Amino acid sequence: MGPRLVGMVESATFWTVAMVLFGFLIAIRLGAFDLSGTISGSNGSTASVPNVYASIDHPFHITRASTLLDNLRSGELTRWISHHQGGYPVEFYPLGGAWLDVLVWAISLGTLSVAAAHKLALISIFLLPGLAFSLLARRDRLPAATASLAFMLHIGVSGKWWSGGYTELISWGLSTNVAAATAMLFTLHFTNVFVADTAPPALVIAVGTAAFAIYANPRSVIALAVIGLAVWLANLRRNRRAGGPSLVRVALIGALTSLITAPELFSLIRFNDLYFFLRYEIYETVGEFARSSAQAVSTPVIYLAALGLGLSVVRRAQGSSLRAVGFALALYVGVTLLLTSSATLSGLVDQLETPRMMPFQRFLMIYLAAAGIAAVIRGLAIRVRRPALTPVLMALLVVLVAIGINGSLIGRGEAERGLHPVTSSVSPALVDLFEAVNVADALAVEDTALFVVGSALSWHAQLWAPLETNRPLFYDNWLWYWHTRHAGPYDYRQGHSYLQPTDALYPGYYARHGIGAVIVTGISQSAIRSSSSGLQPARVGEGVYDVYLVSQPTKIVTFPGTSATSIAVSNGLIEAKGNSAGGTLVVRHNWHPRWSAKVNGRPVRVERREDGYMSIPVPAGEVTLELIYAVDAFDWSARFLMLIGIVSTIALGVHLPRRLRGGKPLVPIASNEVIRPKVRWARR
Hints:
By secondary structure, this protein is α+β, with helices and mostly antiparallel strands. Among the domains are: 178-272 and 633-670; 557-629. Helix content is 49%, strand content 13%. The strands form four sheets. Strands 10, 11, 12, 13, 14, 15, 16 and 17 form an eight-stranded antiparallel beta sheet that branches. Helix 8 packs parallel to helix 10 and helix 14 crosses helix 15 (320-341). The protein starts with a helix and ends in a 23-residue tail after the last helix.
């Protein structure tokens, strides 16, 4: 065994380069450099379209990012998404992930489409755990290959759609959940660095990543609480006298994060009784949780994670990062089981689905598995008095895992492969949907909504429609809903979709929601004719999607006795003018307590209708309506607290007061050596 070989595989630089190269190859595999394609439309035209992920939730997140960017271009913040199923408040489904897409778009100087930026953002999220694993392993001076092994396990184990791996992030497009979990992995590392070493930059990064995670997915509050307690316990175990200072530093991170995320947290708490969240998944038993944990990382990895957990908690000489990860996993599992077994606790937060907490747990298990393997190999090498075996055996193991990953990419059916192919947007069906939306937009009566029924590309393909129109949109399958009053043929307790879309194809439904045209696929012309649909064909049989116009459409805003003569719906603003007979005006847009109305310049009360929409009393004669999604005193207070949090975090990052520094670091940087007290007589 040559010294050069041992030195090479022992080098941190070698493994850093290897990980970067491996990540680059994975990025190529995921299509990071294949961002456009050419498609022929049904009318014979050729179009260049983005080549991006188009399965399941991807269109939903792409259109949200596009909406955010459009509003930013207009100099406005996005607080209400008006085009989706009557509208919804952003705090119910916050825009943290969409901001990441916009950031990637900005880095490209606007040369990328929002859809392409979203694809690159997802690939970045998928690869970023490798950096987090490197930071954790390097701090504790674990064998240099440890992070590479953890990274490869992360890449190679796809998991289920709720696990946080490739399947959830890339295949299903549940980007906000995985993005938040990835950010919390960095929060764990930098919280530990700040608590142990009082490094001001670590404070800024810990708070920043934690705040992003909460804005991406509010469930991250649970992970943040677990991280704080885990880091405190890890440093307390290292140094009993560190309990007080450690607790103060952990509390500081929590306080700053709470201030920065005040607009999100305040709104969720304030309107908790208003918001409804359907829990699609729960753990019925502890056994289900155990099976889900194994599915997230594979059975061998979960056993190795148990080994790593034992080593991290039991062995006092282990580095502070590994101990923090071990405590975090133990606490996180405990919290998950507690929430699973207690209906009272889980009921405190409607948005809480315990299976959706798995991504962060998955990262912890993978890192502990890699660290456990490294500890065993190092122990064996020391026992046989051949320390050089540690880097060599670790390198051999990494190579074997890499070969296994490569084998999972080929030789199987597409759905069974690792990193299996994902539905692409380069599809005639998607181009035809856009063409159909444009036709409907051009022909439908002004100030009416569009109803998109069916999906010809992938589940939820309807949700691409906002990219081609500024009209309000309704769908037969719209992902989720935030209240229970939507008028349609469905049961909100079972899912947010119409099991029989034809049940919604009738004049009363169109009038209730102000629909002027229907875009449909998967339903025959005869079925539409037999449903008493009240539709007139506008584009039928020319492509995948057909377009029908509503025979007698009702506008989004109607005055007593007539429709509005002009209507404008924009970001948090609805304006209408018309001649009223006196009585009640109806706005077919979702009610929320923040909506404030003025009729002819005078404030009036906004009432909530049975169908979730708004009604407003108006006088007879010419009427001008202005509905504003207002920023009230509570919102301004939350924004002020956010500003305080941002300024305080930056200030503490520049200069940390001496009382927070607390003298010497609690734990030496990048070391797993036990601190030995200096004894004067030992020098004699």
